[in-house]
Design brief:
Length: about 230
């Protein structure tokens, strides 16, 4: 496979992973917004299975979402697979390609334009340091490997819980349940690493803003049970 087609494949994968990341972030956003609604209204602060169900539904769905992105199965499109392929073929991602995403189309006719061009080159040099040394000429595979290790270590409690209590039921006793804070940290790191590789492959500083354009809270403004 030619280098260009390989990179194009990775860029296509970014789009698939993006939709998965957005769903994960949206799940978290809605869950914590509902917690704010509950906290602000003492009348609905009561014991009962509904809130337990709400927490279990969110946590199990989100844990599986984290697990999916760290699944190395070659049949899937995941963040872990993307990083693994980049690690194996890091030489394909050259510094010259990275720099060109900053400087292509930048005119150099006037003194001012040349200054802007040089500033873009300098910015590319600074930004590339997170992927390796510019002198090496391409992405350093060890840097990518470190990101994979960091992800798996940070998400370890989520992965074990998802494997032993959600996707499967291990016969051994399981007591190391992750917290909502553990889940938040795992999702944050997944998204941080994802943005890093969007930067590497697309040359853009990427972010997702969770701001629904519809009133999803409207359902809470009416009684749920009609009095007979």
């Amino acid at each position: 496979m030619k280098t260009d087609s390989r990179i194009q494949k990775w860029i296509t994968w970014l789009g698939v992973i993006e939709s998965e990341m957005y769903e994960l972030l949206m799940l978290r956003y809605v869950f914590w917004e509902v917690q704010k609604i509950i906290k602000a209204n003492p009348k609905i602060q009561m014991d009962g299975y509904f809130y337990e169900w709400l927490g279990l539904s969110y946590s199990k769905t989100a844990c599986i979402g984290v697990r999916r992105q760290l699944d190395p199965d070659p049949r899937g499109i995941t963040l872990a697979r993307l990083l693994a392929e980049i690690q194996q073929s890091s030489i394909a991602l050259t510094y010259s390609r990275f720099e060109s995403m900053y400087t292509d189309g930048q005119p150099k006719h006037t003194q001012h334009q040349k200054m802007l061009y040089d500033l873009q080159k300098q910015q590319a040099q600074r930004d590339f340091k997170q992927f390796g040394s510019r002198r090496k000429g391409h992405v350093d595979a060890s840097f990518v490997c470190n990101d994979l290790i960091r992800l798996n270590m940070a998400c370890d409690s989520i992965l074990r819980y998802a494997h032993k209590r959600i996707a499967h039921r291990d016969k051994k006793k399981f007591t190391q349940f992750p917290t909502f804070n553990d889940l938040d940290k795992a999702i944050d790191l997944l998204f941080t690493v994802y943005k890093k590789y969007v930067h590497l492959l697309r040359g853009v500083q990427y972010d997702i803003t969770i701001a629904p354009q519809w009133d999803w809270k409207e359902v809470f403004t009416v009684p749920w049970i009609n009095e007979p």
